[in-house]
Amino acid sequence: MVFINTLHPDRYHGFSKKPPYFEGWYYKLVSADEESRLAVIPGVYLAPDEENNHCFVQVFDSKAREVRYHRYPFSDFQASRDSFEVKIGENSFSRDAITLAIDDEIGRLQGELEFADLNPWPVNYYSPGAMGWFAWVPMMECYHGVVSMDHRIIGELRLDDQALDFNGGRGYIEKDWGKQFPSAWIWGQSNHFDQPGVSLMLSVAVIPWVGRSFGGFIIGLLHAGVIHRFATYNRGKIEDLTIEDTHVDLVVKNPTHRLQIRALRVEGGLLQAPTTVEMDRRIIETLNAQLDVQLEDLDGQVLYRGTGQHAGLETVGDLEHLIRMVKKG
Questions:
Q1: Residue 210 pLDDT exceeds 90
Q2: Judging by beta carbons within 10 Å of its beta carbon (0-12, 13-18, 19+), is residue 26 exposed, middle or buried?
Q3: Which of 179, 173, 241 is nearest to 201 (CA)?
């Protein structure tokens, strides 16, 4: 099961896991008129104290900067063993669709969405997804997968009494699983560039490793149908990382290309994230950031330059420590 699931990062991995353990999928939803921007995050948490085991659907309305954490008994969680199909109560989630039937004291979110023309991160034996060969390493603190860098949305939702039309909108899907999130990280994503079909995902984090730690990173830029990968595992290197109150500057290269990114920081909402005890860590996320991107070859010829709007952005933890780890790298 472990071997097979490694080659299917989108599937549920927690059947034989012992606590503490979490697993969650992240659906970013932006309407065609770009007025509605939601993150819907279904997940499950196995706690050292069994009474705290539960599943959840977390909903982030970025326009309102409001986060709702809809908690369900662990018994309400179901997952397929041979495909990415998850159910939480009356809600269902897969790579191709979601059905939402949330109605509790916190609020309502109901409706169905379908996803078309997905752009998954390539998976093969030697590099099974966004983690590369690190996906084969057991006992890592946190694993990451990208289900689709960019796709079309079909359908409508109703948030409380508000109708949200997502027909013709754009979506993005990723996931995380493991014991807890890193101590510090930067995460960003946008697939709303001036050129359709462009999508960027970036993750830079402090990674525990054999009693020590290092600054690891995974960055993918989908451009002209190709995902340009910049990562620790493919001889990538961070040439510069600067974090200011207003922005983050990041320059990375791999053996063939260089990528320059400026992320503009803005206010966001407080999501709940896992620790080894509970889903009690608070992290600030926005879907209103901006990502300025330039892709060039190593001779300096610019291959793409653009600005991503409605960007997700998180800058979390001891960022000075993260910078030190990156510079040691």
A1: no
A2: buried
A3: 173
DSSP percent split of the chain into helix, strand, coil, nearest 5: 10, 60, 35
Alpha carbon of 215 to those of 123, 140, 206, 235, 236: distances in Å?
23, 14, 5, 14, 12
Domain boundaries, the chain: 2-328
Q: Is the pTM value of this prediction over 0.85? A: yes
AA letter at 241? L
Asked if residues 229 and 254 have their Cβ atoms less than 8 Å apart, the reply is yes
Distance CA 176, CA 181 (A): 9
Cβ partners under 8 Å of residue 17, min gap 6: 46
Is the separation of the CB atoms in 162 and 192 below 8 Å?
no
Can you read off the two tokens belonging to residue 62? 């970025």
Query: 242: how many CB neighbours lie within 10 A of its CB?
Result: 11
Tokens of 99: 């059905």
Q: What is the mean pLDDT of residues 35-58?
A: 97
Mean pLDDT of all residues in 228-236: 96
CB atoms within 10 A of CB 309: 16
Phi, psi of 323 (to 5 degrees): -60, -40
Q: Is the pLDDT of residue 12 over 70?
A: yes
pLDDT at 211: 75
Which one-letter amino acid corresponds to residue 82? D
Q: Are 309 and 195 in contact (CB under 8 A)?
A: no
Instruction: Quote the longest CA-to-CA distance of the chain.
Output: 58
Residue 329 pLDDT greater than 80, yes or no: no
* Angstrom distance (rounded) from CA 6 to CA 221: 23
More confident residue, 210 or 251: 251
CA dist list (Å): 170 to 63, 153, 240: 16, 6, 31
Q: What is the mean pLDDT of residues 68-77?
A: 98
Query: Token pair of 320, please?
Result: 């000075």
Please say whether the beta carbons of 221 and 260 come within 8 A. no
